Predict the structure.
Amino acid sequence: MDNKVICFGEMLWDIFPKESIAGGAPMNVALHLVHLGVDVKMISSVGEDKLGKKLLAFVKKYGLPDELIQINEEFPTGTVKVDDGDKENINYEIVKPAAWDHIKWSEDMDKSVRNADAFIFGTLAARNEVSKATLEKLLEIPVLKIFDINLRPPFYSADLLDNLLRRADILKINEEELTLLADFYDLPSKMEAALEKLSELFEFDLICITLGSKGAAIYQEGEIINHPGYPVAVKDTVGAGDAFLAGFVSKYLSKESPEKILDFACALGALVATFSGGTPQYNEEDILRIKNL
């Protein structure tokens, strides 16, 4: 029986000076899960505008169902203004208000989450009270909750993080996010000790941390499992973390060992980094090729 996953949150356009690219971490994760053959649905909202129609057409092309993507007549499709003039210091403006700030609870989305094997969420979609209220209601449902923390200043607070961390079964973070959590919760400086304390504070089933070019690690039941990652010629890192998470989720739900989960997720993240854009087309042979480099 196929695993069912629901992704909740932002779907938008990254507006560069020369082009616009479809994005938003939850949407990217959903599209990668589609690639991996997982039964996935996206809960979000787009505006009743040209950008919204274009975004819906984009996800349909990938085979992502759109029945839980709302169309908002009042607010525009989400955009992020990207200034990449200085490649070392790219500036982002996550424009508000946006349709995905106004995701309204519905019986259909509630039923879909109840029937799912996993529910993936982050912090950004909780920046507005409407989507936040919907998220909190869905987090009351007894389903595996995977928190892709995905911190985007200034759209989070200590109270929001505390609330969402306490709802999660699995936490996915990167090194920078662990440093921020260390400040909030007075965590030890060493990574393993910090993950241990976090796990004790919030009773996570598992914490997964991505380490950039150094790979990734899983902390579970007092044990840390490391993977060095796969060295590749990087075109851009956009979406690599989202691809990693999709790979992680697909193998975790298939009850693979932590070692196999990390190996597959690292290979998929590395593969996506060899392409431009966050949601390239690929197949299983491409992932195997990365493993055999």
